[in-house]
Write a structure and sequence with these properties.
Elements (H helix, E strand, L loop, with lengths): L1 H19 L3 E4 L1 H11 L1 H23 L3 E10 L5 E5 L11 E5 L4 E14 L1 H68 L5 H36 L6 E4 L3 H7 L16 H22 L4 E14 L12 E11 L7 H67 L5 H36 L3
Helix pairs in contact: 2-4, 3-4, 4-5, 4-7, 4-9, 6-9, 7-8, 8-9
């Protein structure tokens, strides 16, 4: 019995630990982008903004639909209001004397329902149009957020791979340098080289160790930033399944060199168009304010009166009433405030039109700049790859000469530094192609 209880307890603990274990993720770049579009914090809020805009649109629409309201009121006259009456005639008393009379009952109750309908209001018409524009603004904002998320995730994915590639290169350089340092140290012990050669190599190795330590820390930070971009807890385990070289190759799209830029596809331009349209509707609203408004209402109700609270008794009489009314409100004179508001709205609309034109020109210039940067990054990738091959051959030759005593430690160290710099340039050129392509896609709205 005790054995069974112990086994059950161990199984329960094991199950609990399994439940508490952090979830793990594995992503290609496209998978990471798709995950972020659903789980990134900004993307989630942007989607909720669309839902809020839809609700706002219906709220505006409902203003022009029939409205039904119910009302129940109860009145208890604690002290009646006396009504003064001049004496004489039918009320008795001396002519010119004042007497009082009381109207009403101790208790009264009223219950009614009102049906109201807006027939015409220029502001309502503009409000419906504005609600549609507001919804479109929210949709464009969501689309722009998605583009920014794509760019952020692509850059973050590339930065993680860049940091890891950098660590691999540094570890490879460190291993090679440690071997050279060991061989040089042994040669120095035999009195065949100067101590300066050993010291020079030791300085270079110290620099690599320091750089490697920093690169490892940066790699951890880059991975955490990547997790945040995807809306994943930084404690979760994440695996990146693509390498930097493949992503860089996939980012080279020569077909883009034959395409023209269509400013109408750009989200900033669409947002500027929305701004112009909203200002146009504001001007229209100010014009419509001078128009009459027409509304109708239908009332039906019941009321009852008593000196005792007998409203719940079946014998208590209730009196029904009903009425129908139409109201027309016609603006006549506003001390020219309507004209002033209309002029302000007109100026705001003209400014929005000017801003739209300015946005168009700026976007054309931004596209040219982004396209040139992208083209240059492709050229630099090819150049840095060629330079890396040359630097590797030079360093290898200098290493052989150094070991054979045909070159100084200074020459060998310079060749090493040149190689290390070229390696970093090559890694940076790959990440530049990725980032510049993403920036260009953002402007052209290519997904």
């Amino acid at each position: 019995m005790k054995h069974s209880i112990l086994v059950t307890l161990l199984l329960f603990i094991s199950f609990s630990n399994a439940q508490e274990k952090n979830e793990s993720y594995s992503f290609t770049l496209n998978q990471a982008i798709e995950h972020a579009l659903k789980n990134n914090y900004d993307a989630i809020n942007a989607a909720k903004d669309i839902n809020a805009a839809k609700a706002k649109k219906w709220e505006t629409t409902a203003i022009g639909l029939p409205q039904i309201n119910g009302n129940v009121s109860y009145l208890n006259n604690l002290d009646f209001t006396e009504q003064g009456i001049t004496g004489g005639g039918a009320f008795g008393g001396a002519s010119g004397s004042v007497s009082t009379i009381t109207f009403g009952t101790k208790h009264s109750m009223d219950a009614r329902a009102t049906l109201s309908q807006l027939i015409f209001d220029g502001s309502y018409i503009v409000g419906l149009q504005s609600a549609k524009v507001y919804l479109q603004i929210s949709k464009n904002a969501k689309e722009k957020t998605d583009l920014e998320v794509r760019e952020m995730v692509t850059n973050a994915y590339g930065n993680v791979l860049l940091a890891r590639e950098n660590i691999l290169i540094l570890e490879k350089n460190k291993k090679s340098l440690e071997q050279t340092l060991f061989e040089t140290t042994e040669t120095y012990k035999n009195g065949l080289v100067e101590e300066e050669n050993v010291e020079q190599l030791q300085i270079t190795l110290n620099q690599i160790n320091s750089t490697l330590s920093n690169a490892t820390k940066r790699s951890d930070i880059a991975l955490q930033l990547f997790k945040i971009a995807l809306g994943i807890d930084i404690k979760e385990e994440v695996t990146l399944t693509e390498n930097l070289n493949d992503i860089a190759k996939n980012s080279i799209n020569l077909a883009l060199f034959n395409e023209d830029f269509n400013v109408n596809n750009n989200l900033d331009y669409k947002i500027s168009q929305n701004n112009e349209e909203s200002k146009r509707l504001l001007l229209k609203l100010e014009k419509y304010r001078s128009l009459p408004t027409l509304a109708a209402n239908l009332n039906y109700g019941l009321n009852s009166f008593a000196n005792k609270f007998d409203f719940l008794e079946q014998s208590q009489p209730w009196y029904n009433y009903s009425n129908f009314g139409i109201s027309l409100n016609v603006p006549i004179f506003s001390s020219f405030s309507f004209g002033a508001k209309k002029e302000q709205a007109k100026i705001a609309y003209e400014q929005a039109t000017t801003q739209l034109k300015q946005t168009e020109q700026n976007l054309i210039l931004q596209y040219k700049s982004a396209f040139n940067d992208y083209e240059y990054s492709i050229e630099q990738l090819a150049t840095s790859k060629s330079n890396l091959s040359l630097a590797e051959r030079i360093e290898k030759k200098q290493q052989i000469k150094f070991k054979e005593g045909l070159s100084s430690s200074f020459e060998f160290t310079e060749a090493q530094r040149q190689l290390y710099t070229t390696q970093q340039n090559y890694l940076q050129s790959m990440i530049d192609v990725i980032n510049k392509k993403t920036a260009l896609d953002k402007i052209t709205n290519i997904k």
